[in-house]
Amino acid sequence: MRHHPSPSSSMPACGGTGRRAARSSTWSSSPRRSLYRTVASNIPSGAVGLFDRELRYIVVDGAGVLDAAGVFKEALVGKTIGEVLPADTWALLEPLCRGALDGRTANGEVPSRGRIYFIHTLPIPGEHGEVSMGMVMALDITARKRAEEEVRRMNEDLERRVVERTAELEDAYHHLQALSAHLQSVREQEQARVAREIHDELGQALTGLKFELSRLAQRLRGHPGGVSDQATALGAVVDETIHNVRRISSELRPAILDDLGLVDALEWHAEEFEKRTGITCTVKAPRRRIEAGPDLGIALFRICQEALTNVARHADATAVRIVLARNRGHVVLEVYDNGAGIPPAVLTSAKSLGLLGMRERTRAFNGDLVIRGAPGEGTVVKVKIPCRD
Ligand SMILES: Nc1ncnc2c1ncn2[C@@H]1O[C@H](COP(=O)(O)OP(=O)(O)O)[C@@H](O)[C@H]1O
Ligand SMILES: [Mg+2]
After folding, report:
1. Residue 333 domain flag
2. Which residues have CB atoms below 5 A from the ion given as ligand 2?
3. Exposure winner among 85, 108, 342, 384, fewest CB in 10 A?
4. What digits encode the pLDDT tens for the residues 152-184?
């Protein structure tokens, strides 16, 4: 077997120029040299070099880096790496090269002359295991780094735009919420005014009419042609109309809510609901009046009204339970039914305008609304709104 002198045995780490020349000639005739050259010249945009313990190039090859650096590889041999490279590049590379001479491999990214190189340094052991040389490999990764940088910049740009758009959307959403709350309140005020006028004006006129009709019926008693009976029948129509006017007025704005408060209003509404639908409706509420304030009172009343309307329309239930409670700075309203159970899909559907209305009313008071249903086990609507004790 032919013996190929290893670079370390033929090229001692230190020595003068003459010894370096001798090393060079042995090295160039070695098959390792041709292997090395093949590898070196095939490194895409890279270079590879060996250096001695004085950090002098023993051999160096690789078109990419050397061309970019504007130096001829032949001119480098025998020179120290430090004197060839710009000072700032060398400052970064030197620890890696010295590390190799101390037996360590290392990686790093080193910028030089406007380009970026991936550097790998490693020790080259001699025959007796001592480190006589180091190897430095450099790959020009400028294009990749620029692409990475571009991707990073685009990502940042995208993120920034997402943040901006989200902020705009949130802004628009808050405006819409405020507008919705405002419209709700204007609508309630308007309904209250109409309810009052219907109740007072129309109600009083009808009561007067009823009184007059009953007096007329008395005076006409005994007259031929049944005119007294006609007057009495007219009185019954007026009675019915008075009843309808009261109902319409209450639907527009339950006066009981303003006069007696939320608990009484809910109890009254539950009674009406039970009478109208035949669904048992109970109310559990604290004895003492809940001081919810007129706006919060009407909001909770309307939410309960919508929940009961839904029970009547969709639940196919036989019983409803309304629970109103105060606990630790909150007022909580729950409406349970024992019906079919609300399907989960409708909870988020844009078509569920009734549910959306309940949610909007709750949000206007910084509250939470939770609606849950289980098939065949009913539905619960739970509203929790912060409220001073
Ligand atoms: N208590 C309930 N039990 C079963 N399904 C319900 C109940 N409440 C609401 N739903 C379902 O949720 C849907 C959306 O309700 P809502 O937004 O009030 O709209 P609407 O009452 O006009 O249909 C209803 O169409 C119904 O399918
Ligand atoms: Mg509804």
Report:
1. yes
2. 310, 354
3. 108
4. 999 999 999 999 999 999 999 999 989 998 999
